[in-house]
Design brief:
globular, alpha+beta, 4-stranded antiparallel sheet, Alpha-Beta Plaits
């Protein structure tokens, strides 16, 4: 089942994000078979990362919650909120 993780950074948290970034990317890479797409939300000028969005393929919402909790960004206290929603890929989905 697919889940969207929509994560919003705390205000003025760029230093926290940059400090945890290499660990976050290593974590994502270690679980790449479960990550369909991922990337940061950015400011309108594209210069500042403001949050993250991931689409995960996991068995259930508990697995999605565990994935989110183990993310080094979450462990560093980067996010003010993390919203996890079941998601159906309709447009642009790969053919099975």
């Amino acid at each position: 089942m697919l889940f969207a993780l929509i994560c919003t950074d705390k205000p003025n948290s760029t230093p926290v994000r940059l400090e945890a970034r290499s660990r976050h990317l290593a974590y994502i890479q270690s679980r790449i078979s479960e990550v369909k797409i991922a990337g940061p939300f950015v400011s309108e000028d594209g210069a500042t990362m403001l949050g993250s969005m991931l689409i995960l393929d996991l068995p259930d919402i508990e697995a999605a919650r565990a994935f989110a909790a183990a993310d080094p960004y979450a462990q560093a206290g980067l996010f003010s909120s993390v919203d996890i929603r079941p998601w159906k890929w309709t447009v642009g989905a790969p053919k099975e």
